[in-house]
Design a protein that fits this description.
By secondary structure, the protein is mostly helical. The chain has one domain. It is 63% helix and 0% strand. It is built from eight helices and no strands. Helix 2 runs parallel beside helix 4, helix 2 runs antiparallel to helix 6 and helix 5 packs across helix 6. It starts with 6 loop residues before the first helix and ends in a 14-residue tail after the last helix.
Length: 190
């Protein structure tokens, strides 16, 4: 059973720009995911996505949909993971990047801790964001590309590329007919 069916499925596939080749759709969505995982630029994701989509001539809707992967509900776990990953990669000791007292964010202790090690936090977050962004974009590209190819194989009658070009899916009987002969007309007259 699929999550989306009927009208919603066709609407989502239409929004994904299914008239484009699967490679372009997957690249656009992966670019959006890469931008969304690069968290030091949290407030500018959509503007950056639209600018790059325009420059690279990718589907703007696909790129923006990719940026929605990191949203207000997922941003805290993503930033926490990227911070952890960046600290591990940079091998920052707890003395250089002490644990922030988040429960005291409105108190002086939090801001003194952040002021003393803010550059270390920013460096760890940036490095973690770059690595997580590259991994997420690569996985997204292959995942979306595979899903689109599978959908086009199982639903050739809904493929916009076939509909736009006027082609029809080739069935086995038509593929076996020799060239020059139409299977409906029978053998040529004598």
């Amino acid at each position: 059973m699929s999550i989306f069916s009927g009208r919603w499925q066709r609407f989502i596939l239409h929004l994904m720009g299914k008239e484009d080749p699967p490679e372009r759709i997957a690249a656009a969505f992966a670019l959006g995911v890469a931008i969304s995982f690069f968290t030091p630029l949290t407030g500018f994701h959509t503007m950056i996505a639209l600018g790059l989509a325009f420059l690279l001539r990718l589907s703007k809707v696909d790129v923006v949909m990719g940026t929605l992967v990191v949203n207000p509900w997922t941003v805290v776990p993503v930033i926490t993971f990227e911070q952890f990953l960046g600290k591990k990669i940079l091998r920052l000791s707890p003395a250089l990047a002490p644990r922030l007292p988040w429960r005291e964010i409105l108190h002086r202790k939090f801001w003194h801790t952040l002021r003393g090690s803010g550059w270390n936090y920013l460096a760890a977050l940036t490095v973690g964001s770059v690595v997580a962004s590259a991994i997420a974009a690569t996985v997204t590209y292959f995942l979306v590309h595979g899903v689109i190819l599978r959908y086009q194989r199982t639903h050739p009658h809904l493929s916009a590329r076939l509909r736009c070009s006027g082609e029809t899916p080739v069935d086995s009987a038509a593929a076996e007919a020799p060239s020059g002969e139409d299977e409906r007309s029978g053998p040529p007259p004598n």
